[in-house]
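User: I'm curious whether this sequence folds into something compact or stays loose and floppy. Could you predict its structure so I can see for myself?
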Amino acid sequence: MRKEYDFSKSVKNPYAKHLKKQVTLRLGVDVIDYFKKLAEETGVPYQNLINLYLQDCAHAHKKLKLKWTSSSKTAEQSA
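Assistant: Here's the prediction. I'll summarize afterward.
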């Protein structure tokens, strides 16, 4: 290995900005634990597993089916 390298003639990767973008997400502890356990089993870093899962959802055009209830119904149900 050389002590110094000459990068004066290097060229920026034109695709680099399209590869990945850093974002901040607030994930539940149970979600993180799940992916960390899966990472140990597979040997793939848990951040990559989360990205792969979300990528699969995006490519398959998966949509969440959420049903919101009003707070009064929730209060009545828990009583």
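Summary: The chain has a mean pLDDT of 88. The helical segments are 16-19, 29-42, 46-59, 71-78.
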